[in-house]
Structure formats: C-alpha cells, structure tokens
C-alpha cells in the first residue's frame, strides 16, 4: 500500500473515532443535564464512593446501580418505572448501602422519555 493511502486511511479512521466519541459525550451531557434539572443529584452521585467515612449516600451512586443491573434483562424498563413511581420503602433494594429508605416518585420532575434516557445512560456507566 502506498504511504499516502495509508495516511489517508489513518486520518479517516481517527476522524471516525473522534466523531463517535463526540456523539457519545454529547449524549452523556444531555442525560446529565436532564438529571440535574430533575434534581436527581440531590440524592445521587455518579461515581462510586470509595470511603464510607462521610457516611452512606442518600441514594446509591449510579456506577453502583449500573454494576447491579446492567446485565439483567428488562433492567431499563424496571428502573424507569421505579424512577417515575418511586421505590417501595418496605422492600429497599439498597438496604445498608444507601442512607435513604426509599426514593420518592419523580414523575412530577421528569417525563417518561427523559427518565428512560437517564436510565439508559446510568446503565452505560462503568
Ligand atoms: C430524595 C432523594 C432522591 C432523589 C431526588 C432521587 N433518588 Fe433515586 N434513589 C433514592 C434512594 C434512597 C434510592 C434507593 C432505593 C432502594 O433502596 O430501593 C434510589 C434509587 C434509585 C435507582 C435504583 C433503583 C433500584 O430499585 O435499585 C435509580 C436508577 C435511581 N434512584 C435514579 C434516580 C433518578 C434518575 C432520579 C432523578 C429523576 C432520582 N433517582 C432521584 C433517592 C433519590
């Protein structure tokens, strides 16, 4: 292969990769903005909290939520429902891992499609 062709191929591969990365990061930004506007960060952080010195977080970190659910079939539907309708205080999924006993319903603060978008993003966190 001629050197020039090689360089061209390399350049287009790089362009493709950076466009894909850009598309990904703007999807992340959009989801983050929706979550911020809906008040999710009052109780949740994105990153797993290494030390429990500061006490348990009110709600589970979203990296932990992803770890817990990302391989479960139907997780996106299941979590979207919980986000909209709130969680059951008598059947806490994060007992001893979060300080909050239950999540209040968020349907007043977020639409179903936005909730779904945020949940998809949460499940993509690593
Ligand atoms: C007032 C505090 C509070 C707010 C605001 C809040 N959450 Fe939660 N969230 C919690 C608590 C507490 C839990 C843990 C519930 C449990 O133990 O079952 C939780 C759990 C979750 C879970 C995991 C559900 C499960 O059953 O494992 C997801 C996903 C989630 N929240 C997303 C969101 C999103 C998205 C928003 C914003 C629209 C939001 N939360 C706003 C407190 C909150």
From TrEMBL:
This is Cytochrome c-552. Residues 1-23 form the signal peptide. The keyword Manganese does not apply. Keywords: Heme, Iron, Metal-binding, Signal. It holds the Pfam family Cytochrom_C. The keyword Metal-binding applies. InterPro entries: Cyt_c-like_dom (IPR009056), Cyt_c-like_dom_sf (IPR036909). It comes from Rhodoferax lithotrophicus. Gene3D superfamilies: Cytochrome c-like domain (1.10.760.10). Residues 27-126 form the Cytochrome c domain.
